[in-house]
Design brief:
The protein is of the alpha/beta class and 257 residues long. The protein is built from 4 helices and 13 strands. The chain has helices spanning 13-28, 34-46, 50-53, 206-256, and strands at residues 96-100, 103-106, 111-112, 115-121, 124-128, 133-134, 138-146, 149-154, 159-162, 165-167, 170-171, 186-194, 197-202. Strands 1, 4, 7, 9, 10 and 12 form a 6-stranded parallel sheet that branches. Strands 2-5-8-13-11 form a 5-stranded parallel sheet, with no helix packed on it. Helix 1 (13-28) runs antiparallel to helix 2 and helix 1 crosses helix 4. The radius of gyration is 28 Å and the shape is elongated. It starts with 12 loop residues before the first helix and ends with a helix.
């Protein structure tokens, strides 16, 4: 370990969760296969001390770092998380995209400006906001699609307003998945589609999908363990009842003699 934590100190649930987050990022990036991931994750949740946790991430980079760095177990101040940390201000890292008989993508970690313009003519483009930061709490995407297609991908919890007009084309509305998250940005999508289309899709990141999958797996394992404990308890009750009846029969047989 690179920090001052004593290996024999007991690990907390928060320590185990930090290691699990690094492992989920690693499998999403292809650094671990599913067998290695499951083995290390199981070891992380069974770990009782820092010394048991540290080796699980020693060969993995943390938070996209190039150099390998183990997870720190030194407790620091809690940084501001949630959507507030993704409303960063500024001008944005890209102001638009053009696809003429071609295509473009804006995805990964980038900053969505207050206004983003995109144009597709017999081509296509993707504006993926799942990992993006936002220059403002309300951003506007102006889409023009002529015999082409544009796709806007937003994470769950973001409020989406679609105001575009389609002529022999369409502006799709995202599937409603409940009210927006507190503090989440508002994405307003407008523009014009002629013999083309603008689609809007809600989709979680790969890491989040993996986290939910692992959460369901853990819940399944817990239910299975609970059923096994219940069955074991019932078997022990039956055995105890059987032993009691046998002892009673032997007692009565002894009284008869």
């Amino acid at each position: 370990m690179t920090d001052d934590a004593v290996p024999e100190l007991r690990a907390s649930d928060a320590d185990r969760d930090r290691v699990a987050d690094v492992l989920r990022d690693a499998v999403a990036e292809g650094r671990l296969d599913m067998a290695e991931f499951e083995e290390r994750l199981e070891a992380a949740y069974k770990a009782r001390t820092y010394g048991e946790l540290a080796p699980l991430t020693r060969d993995l980079p943390v938070a996209g770092a190039v150099a390998s760095a183990p997870v720190s177990f030194v407790k620091g101040p809690v940084s501001e998380g949630g959507w507030a940390g993704r409303i960063v201000g500024g001008e944005g890292s890209s102001s638009g995209g053009i696809a003429i008989l071609s295509g473009f993508e804006r995805k990964g970690r980038w900053t969505m400006p207050k206004r983003f313009g995109c144009f597709a003519f017999m081509g296509g483009g993707v504006i993926d906001l799942r990992e993006a930061d936002f220059a403002d709490r309300e951003v506007h995407v102006n889409c023009v699609a002529i015999m082409g297609g544009l796709q806007v991908v937003v994470p769950p919890g973001v409020e989406v307003v679609v105001r575009g007009v389609g002529v022999m084309g369409a502006f799709e509305h995202p599937r409603d998945d409940g009210p927006p998250d507190p503090g989440a940005p508002r994405v307003v999508i407008g523009g014009f589609a002629f013999w083309g289309g603008v689609g809007v899709e809600r989709k979680a990141t790969r890491a989040e999908r993996q986290r939910l999958k692992e959460q369901r797996r853990q819940e399944k394992l817990e239910r299975r363990a609970s059923r096994q404990e219940l069955h074991q308890a019932r078997r022990e009750e039956r055995h105890e009842l059987h032993r009691g009846r046998r002892a009673e029969r032997e007692r009565r047989r002894g009284e008869e003699y």
